[in-house]
Amino acid sequence: MRTSQLLLPTLREDPGEAETVSHRLMLRSGLIRRVAAGIYTYLPLGLRIIRKVEDIIRQEMNRAGAQELLMPVASPAELWRETGRWDFYGKELLRFKDRHERDFCLGPTHEEVITDLFRREVRSYRQLPLNFYQIQTKFRDEIRPRFGLMRGREFIMKDAYSFDADEAGARASYQKMYDAYHRIFTRCGLTFRAVEADTGLIGGSSSHEFMVLADTGEETVVYTETGTYAANVERAELLPPEEEHVEEFRPLMAVKTPNCRTVEEVTTFLKIEPNRLVKTLLYKAGDQTVAVLVRGDHDANEIKIRRILGVTEVELAGQAVVEKITGAPVGFAGPVGLTGVRVIADHAVKTARNVVVGGNQADTHYVDANWNRDFQVEQFADLRNARAGDPSPRKDGVLKATKGIEVGHVFMLGTKYSQSMNASFLDPNGKECLAVMGCYGIGVGRAAAAAVEQNHDDKGIIWPFPIAPFHVHLLPLGESSAVKETTARLYADLEAAGLEVLLDDRDERAGVKFNDADLIGAPYQVVVGEKGLAGGTVEMKTRRTGEKIKLAPADVPGTLLDLSRAFRTPTT
């Protein structure tokens, strides 16, 4: 491909809308352009990368025995109502009516549609197991789309759905997809980790996220360095702390804490550590209000709170509700004397002694409060976020923390969808049985953006070879016949060798060509200059290391093929 024939609008300056490294560099290198909030056009260079990621996915899905199909973007509401997700999914589901006033949505995922296909077409256990996948555009009406392709509203996704006759078969299908995802992300050149995760809006019994490790990631992952445990911080389990030495109870006492509402303000004023304070957080959970107690140095985990309460959503109560229940402004709620609400607490509160809690009146806190003497707790549970330094729930070390970007997610669905939609088959005895399902997603654009987050420097992107838009950036400098002839011959020879070449044939200064080549990030650059040709050589640069070597033009294709051989993974 010649640059003169390619729409490649590179930018010298960082766009004002750019929020992350990948967002900035993908805009600057001419890969994407914004159409609306969270909606992007893939320009030719960006689409080449997307197609390469898709090709790797398709090869590994086929290798794992999945069958490709394509489902519609628009789904009728009646399918979503069968599973209850028409209402449960909330405002992320973009709903609309057709000309006949029938309800539809743009599919953010396709469990309903694929389960409907299964119940219409599959009759016997002899047809199982089955695994279907598609690579398709999705739409989720994110409340705050951001970070370019990391959290868009419209995005390209690979979603797959397995159907098995029993739980054992479903787990085998799940493992096949888990292994396939390892191969996919390894072939894409990503550094990643599979972690236990919450099932969220998809539902099911268990799931794993595939997290690309990057400092700019939105998610926090905790893991043991020497053990096997790894989990998203939202999902990470925590064991109840062991009882340490128990202080003697001291008398409860109310103290004035003027204008001290936050943990930092209260602990600074009282000259105590945050772990000596217990926060009382009032949550609205459907029609009820619940008080959740966590230590001052811990963060409440709303996913765990939802799970304990058996509800789909919780939100912090507003000021009016807090004042009505506690009689005090926000910041002074506490469990002592609190009535009319259910009180639950994190395990760490159970072992805390002589703590500070809100006094349920303005500018007042209690010191030396103790549960079961000064206040009651209906239930203790794991209600907080894990953090570095916590013991592993597998008892295999101490947790460490890192940031990650979710690029894939695999779910064990069980019979959640097959039961609600009556997706059944006949077993060997003629008995009707529900299919046991799994579902498996990969964000294609997000995987490409995550590769940028992991592979860049201050000059631009450094693409992993398997998903690079071009393998070689050919840079002729000068207008002599020797430069032109050598460039033309190299271009033909490299393409004949199976390498993808971007030839910068623009009438631009050397500095402009070098800057754009570093920005675009092809793994290798070959510079054809008059000075080098006078000595019979061209210069080859490895983008990742910056290493430069002189080669005879005839030796360039073979050298590049040798260097790239390690990246050419067999597909069978």
Automatic annotation (TrEMBL):
Record field: transmembrane: none
Domain annotation Aminoacyl-transfer RNA synthetases class-II family profile: ranges: 33-464
Alphabetical GO biological process terms: prolyl-tRNA aminoacylation
InterPro entries with a match to the protein in the record: aa-tRNA-synt_IIb (IPR002314), aa-tRNA-synth_II (IPR006195), aa-tRNA-synth_II/BPL/LPL (IPR045864), Anticodon-bd (IPR004154), Anticodon-bd_dom_sf (IPR036621), Pro-tRNA-ligase_IIa (IPR002316), Pro-tRNA-synth_IIa_bac-type (IPR004500), Pro-tRNA-Synthase_IIa_type1 (IPR023717)
GO cellular component terms, A-Z: cytosol
Pfam families referenced in this protein's UniProt entry, alphabetically: HGTP_anticodon (PF03129), tRNA-synt_2b (PF00587), tRNA_edit (PF04073)
CDD domains: ProRS-INS (cd04334), ProRS_anticodon_short (cd00861), ProRS_core_prok (cd00779)
Note on domains (UniProt): Consists of three domains: the N-terminal catalytic domain, the editing domain and the C-terminal anticodon-binding domain.
Function: Catalyzes the attachment of proline to tRNA(Pro) in a two-step reaction: proline is first activated by ATP to form Pro-AMP and then transferred to the acceptor end of tRNA(Pro). As ProRS can inadvertently accommodate and process non-cognate amino acids such as alanine and cysteine, to avoid such errors it has two additional distinct editing activities against alanine. One activity is designated as 'pretransfer' editing and involves the tRNA(Pro)-independent hydrolysis of activated Ala-AMP.
The protein, known as: Proline--tRNA ligase
